Amino acid sequence: MNICLIAPQTPFLENVSFPPLNLLYLSSYLKLHGYDDIELVDLNVTDDVPSADVYMITATTPQFPYATELLRKLKGITIIGGAHATADTNSCNLFDIVIQGEGEKAILQCLKDIEAGGYEPVYAGTQIANLDELPIPARENIEPAHYSYYIDDALSTIAMTSRGCPYICRFCQKMYPNVRFHSTSYVLKELLSIRNCGYGGVYFVDDMFGLRYNLLELAPQLKKLVWKCQIRPDENINNIKIMGDMKCRGVNIGIESGSQKILDTVNKKANIKRVPEVVKECKAQGMEVRAYIIVGLPSETHETVEETIEFLRMIEPDSVGVGTFVPYPGTYIHSHIKDFDIKIEEPDYRKWYFRAERKKYNCVVSTSELTADEILRYRDKIDEEFN
User: Fold this and answer.
1) What are phi and psi of 56, to 5 degrees?
2) Residue 142 falls within a domain, yes or no?
3) In this predicted model, what pLDDT tens digit does every residue of 142-152 receive, in sequence order?
4) What is the Cα–Cα distance from 95 to 58, expressed in whole angstroms?
């Protein structure tokens, strides 16, 4: 059976920094179970899609329209999975098969059914309790030069040492509330593999890297790489000191808003008063701080945006990643949109992206006080002042 794994294009991003990590996991997992004829295609780096018996496509919501356009070119069985398919399965009925949730075990069963002469239209993914059952992502299947992410001038890639998040932010397209971790030995082995693939750095995309209780045990490999990670705005200060000891170069912090009212509305479960202490300690440890901000969350007003701007001026992050709010399918806000001061103004999923190149941003929502254009202008104002 010939299998082709496809990551659709993201035309709102000119430079693709990261490979499709979920497909790298899937590739290595399927090979472990005897499926060797696999080709991975990232349509951000090539236009060529080979002939195959089965096509597996992953897609976020803004990628979904481009995934459906692929169907005209594909002659084999088509399978879609990923964030959008999990959140809005009914919209995926043009595909032969839909995978919900974590894909590895569900796709393995799906392939066995195809080989047996039949298959179901929907397969519900099963959580992998022991993440060490997963082989290391097949980074050898990609060309590092196709991606452009650097830390301290070192070509770097992404890694994930855990799955899940214990928090229930109402804007998050979340699969599972529990957190599972790879063991220390697994992570050390993966970091060695990353070095052997030619990378000099790694960015941990765990929702909260600081949840690992054994950070110091990763030092034997981390000290040989430059690295960054994501942390909570109320991160444990001792964790930050440990990261500093292991030469962490930078942290990305999901602050979201400088207004406690907005944070409470979206159930962020973070006290804005803790953030200055966290940022200060990160800087004291020599880490660059990048603050993530969302403009246009439910109940956003001129006053709450100005609160955010003043808050950023006070904490002085090194840079700010700022996007406009998108009420993705599967989020609490999308499912209960009538309960929030938010209105969808643009139904075209092609425009439902949160991050973009500087001149490609747009806004798909409004609040009772701010139009979509006003939200976008505030986004641009923050971008221009802090970057």
Assistant:
1) -115, 120
2) no
3) 888 899 899 99
4) 12
DSSP 327-385: --TTSHHHHTGGGSS-EE----GGG--S---GGG----EE-SS--HHHHHHHHHHHHHH
Return the CATH number at 78. Answer: 3.40.50.280
- Encode 316-333: b = buried (16+ Cβ within 10 Å), e = exposed: ebbebbbbbbbbbbbbbb
User: CA angle at residue 203 from 281 to 227, to 5 degrees?
Assistant: 55
Amino acid in the structure at residue 322 = V
Structure token pair of residue 293: 């901000």
Residues 6 and 376: their CA atoms lie apart, in Å, by 32
CA distance 300 to 135: 44
Containing structural domain, residue 262: 149-386
Judge contact between 49 and 4, C-beta under 8 A.
Answer: yes
Domain-embedded: residue 54:
yes
> How does pLDDT run across 353-366, given as a tens digit for each residue?
988 888 889 999 99
